[in-house]
Specification:
globular, eight-stranded parallel sheet, 36% helix
Length: 297
């Protein structure tokens, strides 16, 4: 049983081309939306982590250092029977989140990756070199060696129990890697044809089958920019907010959810605080269900 929900900020934009999301966790922590949510006795802001200052270090080295710190914080949170809820920062911080979860769980975990992009590039296939386009590949054991094996040796997530929901902008090299590894991808066209609820239910069954439990990584750019303007890499024609919230809340109400993260919040682009309120609302929807979540032994 979960004692409380611990919010962990991961304030890095080093992996992105637009560095504005580095300010996301601090801006959200200072927002009115957070202050209203903070009245809930089950929710507590644990701490906010920043990339260390490392003279002469490449961005990937600073990202790796932050991810090691984040993995330690997430693993400690789980060992204390609390529920880690990470707020990013660009999506490269996910390497730390799910490495920490895997370490606490004692093995690979399932992962529902909700994103407008596949984030499955390696340094050899990336068109831009941006690290936030690589974290899912890293978690599956592919990529820059400095970003691998942070939680434990080998992959941190189980490809057979990993699903990507909502991508609508990606390169063929990413799709080929995920296909080769056996990751199920529910792209925008399939969701449009079948409906979000049906695709979400199938994705939930895939990740929920992981013996060690699973997590949810939500990149806000999966939503339409009109709904969530405060993102670093907006893409048109996103998923509907209500269906997304209902799907995540249903996962929280079941068994096996170990952690959640929301990433790529860019306060510089957040008109009238819409995205901050969305984040708070999503956390608020999930919190009542988390007391039933299965924790690692």
């Amino acid at each position: 049983m979960t004692n409380r929900i611990r919010i962990i900020g991961a304030a890095s934009g080093l992996g992105a081309q637009d560095h504005g999301c580095a300010d996301g966790p601090v801006a959200f922590h200072r927002s009115q939306a957070w202050h209203e949510l903070a009245d809930d006795p089950q929710v507590d802001w644990a701490r906010t982590l920043f990339p260390p200052q490392m003279a002469g270090a490449a961005p990937v080295e600073r990202v790796a250092a932050l991810c090691r710190d984040l993995a330690d914080e997430v693993a400690l949170t789980l060992c204390n029977r609390d529920f880690p809820f990470v707020i990013g920062g660009d999506h490269s911080v996910a390497i730390g989140t799910w490495s920490g979860v895997a370490r606490a769980a004692g093995g690979t975990v399932g992962l529902l990756w909700i994103d407008a992009h596949l984030d499955a590039h390696t340094p050899e296939t990336s068109y831009t070199g941006a690290l936030h386009g690589m974290p899912l590949a890293c978690l599956l054991g592919r990529g820059d060696k400095r970003l691998l094996g942070i939680g434990m040796t080998g992959p941190q997530v189980d490809a057979a129990h990993t699903a990507v929901l909502g991508p609508r902008s990606f390169e063929p090299e990413e799709a080929l890697l995920l296909e080769r590894l056996g990751v199920r991808v529910f792209a925008h066209d399939e969701i449009a044809a079948r409906g979000l609820a049906a695709c979400f239910a199938e994705a939930a069954a895939i990740v929920g089958g992981a013996a060690g439990g699973f997590g949810v990584s939500l990149d806000l750019d999966v939503l339409d920019p009109g709904t969530a303007p405060g993102v670093g890499s907006p893409e048109p024609d996103g998923l509907p907010l209500r269906g997304l919230v209902e799907g995540i809340a249903a996962l929280a109400a079941g068994q096996g959810l170990l952690a959640c993260e929301i990433v790529e919040y860019n306060p510089d682009r957040d008109r009238h605080g819409l995205t901050a309120r969305l984040i708070a609302g999503l956390i608020g929807e999930v919190v009542p269900h988390l007391a039933g979540s299965r924790r690692p032994a």
